[in-house]
Design goal:
single chain; alpha+beta; four-stranded antiparallel sheet; 15 helices; 7 strands
């Protein structure tokens, strides 16, 4: 229901509450119509492209406004500009990214960083937006059955953050807001505890174990998480034999660690590359000392020309079309620093 402010100094704008917070009614109507028009037009153009009609792909791409946020590089006394964390999340479509399998890992890492580092000091709007993104990721996980471990870890971190900031003035916002966050997290934890994986029924179709060993080995070697490799070997004997292969763990070592780290640890263990190396043991030692490499299918990039932040897979409308396109990939930590955390 629209809310009309009673303050005589206000501009008389009508406000409406959405899932992303309060928004001006006239702007919300415009965005709603734009989204409806974009969905209809994009569906028509997509069908036309599939039918090889006269419409070109570059014309189709211009119909969409890719999610991006402009971060001003320089400010002056006369012209200042800043972008809040909630606004950055909104313009980068972080809620939609939580449903995208390619952007899911990066989005969870961003949430983890903000939850672990002074979550209670964020603005109330930013806190609510983080909870909204987390709920979207949680619903997507329950729907697909994938990435349960990442969401469970986020719920644990958020519970610890809320407990650490349980008493005023350790948190920003009212006690009612803090209690609402606790209720939301507890509700998600109950749903996660009651969740049961649905086993695939015997439909006569091809399964992973039906593939030749060489194909399975090529699939498993693409895994970046050693836990996934270990769990795959626990399914059956043939998968265990493949996942226990020394060459498989060698590929994991070469992927996560550089030559200096490998040589240093080999020297401590009294071995060398020429001799027989227990790559699984070496991997365990290296993980304890250096950790693993974070892998993201899609990252947020910063345009070196206009300063916009955008998703690598979506691009952005750069104003400096005469300059050569150049960008810098942003880790979750770099993204947090750029948006002013």
């Amino acid at each position: 229901m629209p809310f009309l402010g009673q303050d005589w100094r206000g501009p008389g704008e009508e406000w409406v509450k959405t899932t992303e917070g309060w928004d001006r009614l006239k702007l919300w109507r415009l965005r709603l119509l734009e989204n409806l028009n974009e969905n209809i037009v994009s569906r028509i153009l997509k069908e036309a492209l599939e039918q090889n009609t006269f419409i070109q792909k570059d014309e189709y791409s211009h119909c969409h406004q890719p999610p991006h946020v402009l971060i001003p590089k320089h400010t002056t006394k006369e012209c200042t500009g800043s972008t809040s964390l909630a606004e950055s999340f909104s313009k980068l479509d972080m809620v939609g990214a939580a449903r995208d399998p390619r952007r899911f890992a990066y989005t969870c890492k961003v949430l983890q960083y903000f939850i672990r580092h002074n979550f209670g000091n964020l603005s109330g709007t930013a806190q609510k937006y983080i909870l909204t993104i987390l709920e979207e990721a949680f619903n997507h996980v329950l729907k697909t059955g994938n990435n349960i471990k990442q969401v469970h870890r986020l719920l644990i971190d958020l519970t610890e953050a809320l407990n650490d900031n349980a008493f005023y003035p350790n948190h920003v916002g009212s006690l009612a807001l803090h209690d609402k966050h606790n209720q939301t997290v507890q509700k998600m934890e109950r749903r996660l505890n009651n969740f049961k994986m649905q086993e695939r029924k015997d439909d006569g179709k091809l399964t992973l174990s039906d593939l030749p060993d060489d194909c399975i080995r090529n699939i498993l070697v693409q895994l970046s998480d050693h836990i996934d490799l270990v769990h795959s070997g626990e399914t059956q004997q043939s998968m265990y034999n493949i996942s226990s292969d020394n060459q498989m763990w060698k590929q994991m070592c070469l992927f996560h660690f550089n030559d200096v780290q490998l040589a240093t640890m080999l020297q401590r263990l009294g071995g060398s590359f020429e001799e027989g190396v227990d790559w699984k043991l070496l991997y365990k030692k290296l993980v304890r000392r250096h950790g693993t490499k974070d892998v993201y299918a899609v990252m947020i990039h910063s345009c070196n020309n206009c300063g916009s932040l955008y998703w690598e897979s979506h691009g952005h409308p750069c104003h400096f079309t005469d300059l050569k396109a150049s960008s810098t990939p942003m880790t979750p930590q770099m993204f947090a620093r750029v948006v002013g955390f």
